[in-house]
Design brief:
alpha/beta; Dihydrofolate Reductase, subunit A; 4 helices
Length: 173
C-alpha cells in the first residue's frame, strides 16, 4: 500500500497554531495547488481525531464519498450526512494491514501526530508540503522530533502566484 501526505505549513514549519487554528493558511489565497488532482488518486484517508474535529468545523465535508479512518480510542463526534467515517485504533502498521486487506491501495495520511507516527513506522512513501508565505512563530510542528534521520528524494518544487511554494519528496528506502 502507498501512503502519502499532502499538507500545508507556515514557512516556519507549523501545520496549526498551538490552539489548532488554521487561519494562517488563508494567506495562500485559495488558489488551486494540486489538491484536487492528488485527492483523486487516493482510495481512503487516515486522519487523527483532532484533525477530524477541525474538519467538522469547515462547514462542508471536504472528502466527498472517500472512506475516512479516524484514529482514536474515544468515540467520535457525529459525522456529517453522507460521510463515510470509521474509527480505528492501533499501531500504524496494523492500520495499514487492515486497510490493505480491504483492497485499499493508496491512503492520504493527515494530522500532525498521525503523520509523525506513520513516518516513524516507515509507512509514508510520498510527502507533498505546501509552504504558505507567513511566519507564525509557534504552534503544532509538522514533524516534531524524529528518532532518526529520514532521507528524502526531492521530486519537484512548484511556486504559485500567491507565494505558495510546494515541494514533493519520496521517502528514500
Amino acid at each position: 500500500m502507498k501512503a502519502s501526505v499532502f499538507v500545508g505549513t507556515s514557512l516556519d514549519g507549523f501545520i496549526a497554531r498551538a490552539n489548532g487554528d488554521l487561519d494562517f493558511l488563508e494567506a495562500g489565497g485559495g488558489e488551486p495547488h494540486g489538491y484536487d488532482e492528488f485527492i483523486a488518486t487516493v482510495d481512503a484517508l487516515v486522519i487523527g481525531r483532532k484533525t477530524f474535529e477541525t474538519v467538522l468545523t469547515f462547514g462542508s465535508w471536504p472528502y466527498g464519498n472517500k472512506p475516512v479512518v479516524v484514529l482514536s480510542t474515544r468515540p467520535l463526534a457525529p459525522t456529517p450526512p453522507g460521510a463515510m467515517v470509521e474509527r480505528m485504533s492501533g499501531a500504524p502498521a496494523d492500520i495499514v494491514s487492515q486497510l490493505a486487506a480491504r483492497g485499499i491501495g493508496h491512503i492520504y495520511v493527515d494530522g500532525g501526530i498521525t503523520i509523525q507516527r506513520f513516518l516513524e513506522a516507515g509507512l509514508i512513501h510520498r510527502l507533498i508540503i505546501t509552504r504558505v508565505p507567513v511566519l507564525i512563530g509557534g504552534g503544532i510542528s509538522l514533524f516534531g522530533a524524529v528518532p532518526r534521520d529520514i532521507p528524502l528524494k526531492h521530486v519537484a518544487t512548484r511556486h504559485y502566484a500567491s507565494g505558495l511554494v510546494q515541494s514533493e519528496y519520496l521517502v528514500a528506502t
